[in-house]
Amino acid sequence: MCGIVGYIGYREAWPIIIKGLHRLEYRGYDSAGVALMNGGLNIYKKAGKVSELEDFTQGVNLGGHMGMGHTRWATHGAPSDRNSHPHTSGDDNLAIIHNGIIENYSSLKETLISRGHTFKSDTDTEVLIHLIQDIQEQTSVDLREAVRIALNEVIGAYAIVIMSKDEPDQLIAARKGSPMVLGVGKNEYFVASDASPIIEYTKNVIYLNDNEIAYIKRDELLIKSIDNIVQTPYIQELELKLEMLEKGGYDHFMLKEIYEQPRSIKDCMRGRIYPSEGQVQLGGIKEYAEKLKNIDRIVIVACGTSWHAGLVAEYLIEECARIPVEVEYASEFRYRNPIISEKDIVIAISQSGETADTMAAIEIAKQKGATIFGVCNVVGASIPRASHAGVYTHAGPEIGVASTKAFTAQVTVLTLMAIYMAQQRGTITQSKLVHLLTELDNIPNLIEKCLLSNEHIQEIAEKFKDSRNFLFLGRGSGFPVALEGALKLKEISYIHAEGYPAAEMKHGPIALIDEEMPVVVIATQNSSYEKVISNIQEVKARKGIVIAIVTEGDTEVTQMADYTIEIPEADEMFLPLLATIPLQLLSYHIAVMRGCNVDQPRNLAKSVTVE
Fold this sequence. Notes:
The protein is an alpha/beta fold. It folds into three domains: 3-244, 4-Layer Sandwich (Glutamine Phosphoribosylpyrophosphate, subunit 1, domain 1); 247-450, Glucose-6-phosphate isomerase like protein, domain 1 (Rossmann fold, 3-Layer(aba) Sandwich), CATH 3.40.50.10490; 452-599, 3-Layer(aba) Sandwich (Rossmann fold). 36% of the residues lie in helices and 24% in strands. Strand 20, helix 12 and strand 21 (389-392) form a beta-alpha-beta unit. Helix 3 (105-114) crosses helix 4.
């Protein structure tokens, strides 16, 4: 995905845009560019980070009260100055910034070339702005109508902002399948991919819907559908706070977000659990309480870290509520012809609520009659709006690209959903409910204890920062924890790492083990403890190096492992919430020691809003 920010009003546009691009840099950091209306349409762009654009524009007159900026995550065309946004029309009268993919750009480009257009970049975005210019030239319609006609011709996903040299008091914004929020001020408007660039100027926002086009002037906002029908916008107030977007004294956003997990998990549970009464209240899915008693199965669709949270949920829901669960990669689900019925519930999990593959999976499931529950962190995002019901995680903004607190927040919400389903279906006793909810209520305190191991984990990281490979092993709900631990390490340190069910090691991966292979084992005292001990012995017999996550006070695994990290004792159901914390810290410290940019790892963006 890419980051978009735009402004029109009485303030100087450049400071707002450049600060907004810094806040949006987690969405893309291959290149950055700005278009300003300043005695004409002036464009400044540069490959690299936003700071390099700032250096590039030193000494330039950057005045003006209208402009737009973009930070890019490359899809079509390698990162370079010429592929950076904004892109212009052939006559340089129009400029565009774009998040998304124009799937039919190649055929459109061929047609435009046959009409005499020439292109300066390799991007699909430049094709769209040339198409708008071409429509104006061929039909003599105004810019608003040319944009509308062009968007009816393109196939794909987009969030766009357009400026025109001939209309120096207007921004045009549109979206389909890619997020866009409008900030509403007094005699000023803001446009952005998310609320982070807007929050210090206004709390009043409009979430643009798919197939809507906004025509924005300093003192006027008109929103129409792509079919030219006037829309009535819904203005809502942001709950986001500015301090949530700052590092708060931490070296990296990722470390800050790791340490925020006691609070974020507590926020997930606030107002939803009543331990002494043995009750879970989930208002977001309450109207489907009766349906939960009679469903055939649950299908979970997600990608990346959210898919790992879904795997945890499979264990929890089947154990507590006795409902069959299937966990699907949304990116694969959407290209099959899945067997889905009206008696199925599909749970879609996404931190951003904008993941393109998950959105597509939702649409397929809805067409087949399934009920959709969304689990999402961002209020007003596309997935909760497309779902029939759902539960927000309330983790707060997550700026680090590698997900940490969003994962544990998802697991917390899915745990609550599993218990709620069990409660509705009568598959759990009241005494068990009280026990589980009492323990769950204490999880934030136990995570605080996990974080006390930070220095010890840092010492272990020092010994393995130069490793080329890692293996992560777990059983039961420890398996998705192993997958998530491996993903975190490879995402931010670029060390090859794989997660496996511990019992599967003998079916192939054991061939990799030697004295140079660190093996991280989730070895807490639970129902599979003895089996995991056998797996550790198999690793040690082949001279593998074992780093074990163990229950506090463990002696048996401690004697066998080369290194141990203790976590507090808790019900087996909550193992994923506790065991994940040391793996996040281990990955973080290894990556920092290797000189990696942990907040903005190479080739990755925060959420994947394109295929």
